[in-house]
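Fig. S4 source data, part A: sequence.
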Amino acid sequence: MPKKLKASEMNKCIGCFTCMNICSIVNKQNHSLSKSAIKVRTSGGMTGRFVAVVCIACKDPACMEACPSGALEKLPGGGVILKPEKCIGCRKCEKACIMQAVFFDEETNTPIICRHCGSCARFCPHQCLNMMEVSAE
């Protein structure tokens, strides 16, 4: 059964950015936080809680609909996967995402989109992130 990432326990987040680092390492073979498909930010300055900006695995992804080259393909259970060889770097997917969870890699001229691999959840020291089973419709 397919799974999707859920940031359901962000009240426990201490802002260590382990999730962002592991995402960059596993998916981009890079240690830069800018290459991560998950972004952890504060909700209001130094005293605000931490929030995670991440793909919510839409059943009908607007990012995929906006892509003129067919570079984004729907995953079972929701969300998309990038076919980088088809991407033309137009950034329409980035603008179409309702969660603002499509980030852009200026070096490769391609979007960075969560593929719901679960690496960030496995390495989160406080279990702020988890993988939830979803139907494959």
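Fig. S4 source data, part B ends here. The chain has four helices and eight strands.
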